[in-house]
Structure formats: structure tokens, C-alpha cells
Amino acid sequence: MPALDAIAAEKTAQLEAKSRLRRLRTVVVEEGITVSRDGSRLLSFSGNDYLGLANHSAIKQAMQDALSCYGAGAGASRLVTGNHPLYDPLESALAAYKGTEAALVFGSGYLANIGVIPALVGREDLVVADKLVHACILDGIKLSGAKLLRFKHNDAADAERLLQAHRLAHRHALLITETVFSMDGDLSPLVDLRRIADKHDAWLMTDDAHGIGRPQPVKVDVQMGTLSKALGSYGGYIAGSQALIDYIVSTTRSFIFSTGLPPATIAAATAALNVLSQEPERADKALGNARRFASLLGLPEAQSTIVPLVLGEEEKALAAAQSLEEAGFLVAAIRPPTVPEGTSRLRFAFSALHTERDIERLVEVIRRENLIP
Ligand SMILES: *Cc1c(COP(=O)(O)O)cnc(C)c1O
Fold this sequence. Notes:
The protein has helices at residues 3-17, 57-70, 78-82, 87-98, 109-120, 135-144, 156-166, 190-199, 242-251, 253-256, 263-278, 281-296, 314-326, 356-368, and strands at residues 27-31, 34-37, 40-44, 102-106, 126-130, 147-151, 173-178, 203-207, 222-226, 236-240, 306-312, 329-330, 332-334, 344-349. By secondary structure, the chain is of the alpha/beta class.
């Protein structure tokens, strides 16, 4: 066996021994929240299509129209010949949705974060980030070469302590958090973070990948988001001032050196924003479902469409997900390194498409299987 394969096999065995091996399992979304896996139909509580837009008829129609008109792919980066006319209406709609002067669409949310952070800060600068920010934010900070300090999760006083002690030794400072935390479902203290950023001359950046279209309570200098979750399509974006966006276009490597989105994908995202503005009740329905679930189980009130049930060790989370699957529910078991050691969990994600009865059935099974620690 060649050396590389031997090393790969050994490392894979080590991961397996720690219940950390990840395997791809095929899942077909039949419609909205009903999926099939290994031949059985399951009700999904694990997707990020919170508003039920990935299968929306008007959005699929917009995609089909764009596909027949313009074909499958962009063929080049946006700065070469890939800047399709469909981008303009999407970016205007995104800027309106975020309340900013401008917005810029990237190939994915991951590409937006790993590109924009190094465009804004470098070796002489400081980044102060929440302990639980997403992996692609950490990757962006690493690529930037800036000094990274992490504050205790959602603890604005700790963020301030770090800025107070370190800000003056650096040229620029960037304070980064998520609006809704992807694995915990809690919200960041944006009002406090804005005040601290102003006091210590730092820029504020948020990752709104799990937001469902609610306005942020404060002005945010750099707002990152994705088209791939609540908007049901694919791609990422940055929203901010026109000056910021103009600068990003010319300096962000993941924007400059990567192909534009397929036209149908751009059209889908524009159509999704349109549906969202006409049917804002979708966001209330999704949040209401999460709240109902948490209250039936006696958990703290849900702050977003994501509700974690922290179980501890990897094996516990895997076994719990397995028993829910046997009862007909697809729920993700989340393990390190996605979450910290000892906090493996079930992550329940609620959609506007779930009914009250769906939630009650799920709760009955959780009780029956004694999954609440
Ligand atoms: C999913 C996610 C991303 C990446 O977005 P994609 O469009 O899927 O690449 C970034 N940040 C957070 C918090 C996410 O959950």
C-alpha cells in the first residue's frame, strides 16, 4: 500500500475509535421537510431551509426560466466575463433587505468569509471574535495574519476587556460575531458589541448565515450572509456601504479568482427575497415552531429556529440521532470539532413547513426514548 493511503487509513481508524468519523449518507429531499434516506421516509428537523423556500414553486420557476434563457454555468469569474445581468437585481434586493447601500454576491458564504476578512485586516491588525464563531471565519482570520483574540461566548464585557488591553498595539481592529449561532441557536448581544466597537475604534462584522430576515438592532459595518440557508438557493454575500463594496471587488481574492454563480442560482435567490418580502409570516411560523418545541420540552425559550439538546459524549448524540431516525425523524448529531469537547448534541432546526402535529410527534418520541438529559 502506498504510504499516503496507509497514513489516511490509520488516521481514519483513529477518528472512528473516537466516534468522530464522518460518513456521507445520501439524502433525497422529496418535498420541503420530507426526505428519504436508505429507502425510508423521514421527517427532517435538520435542514437549514428555515422558510421552506428551497422547493417553492415560484422560485423553481424562476430557476427554470433562467436556465432555459442563459444555460447552466457562468463560465468565468465576475471580473472577467461572468458578471451576469441577473446580479444587479439580486444585489439591489439584498442591500434593501439588509438596509445597506450596497451588497456583493460571492460563490458561497464560506468564500465570502475567507475572502473579506483578509481584505479588511492584516498582520498589524487585531481581530476579536466570539469563542463559537464558524470555522470559515477562523479560516479567514488565519489567512489574514491578524492577531486573533477570542471572547467568551456572547460575553460583551469579555470582548471589551480584550479590546481595552490590546487595541492600542494594533492599527485596525475588527470585532466579529454571528447574529444567530449555528449550533446553539442563541443571539449575540449586538447592542453592547456596537457600543464597545465604537468606544474602542473597532469595526463590527456579523455573520447572519442563520438569520431569517429579521433586521439587526444596530448598524453593522460588514454584514456577511448566505443565500444557501433561509433563502433556499446557493451563494454568499457581503452587505455594507458602497465604499466598502467597491473596495472588496478589487481586493478580495475569493471574489476575484473564483467563477460566478450559475444564472439559475442567482435568479432563485432574487425570487426567494421576493417571496420573503411578500410572505413575512414565514419567519414567524418557523420561530413559533421552535418556541413550541422548546416549551413542550420545558427547555429555555427558543431565540431562533435552532434548538440544541446538549448530550455530552459523541456516542450519546449518535445513539440519540439513531433512535430518532428509527422513529421516522432526521435530526443531526453534532460532534467535535464542530462543537467543543463534551458538548455533542442533537441540533433541531425548525422550518415554516413543520406543522404543530409534527412538533408534537417529535416531542412524544423524545420523551418516550428518554432523550432529555
Ligand atoms: C453555513 C455557514 C457559513 C457558510 O455559508 P455557505 O453559503 O454554506 O458556504 C458561514 N457561516 C456560518 C455561521 C454558517 O453556518
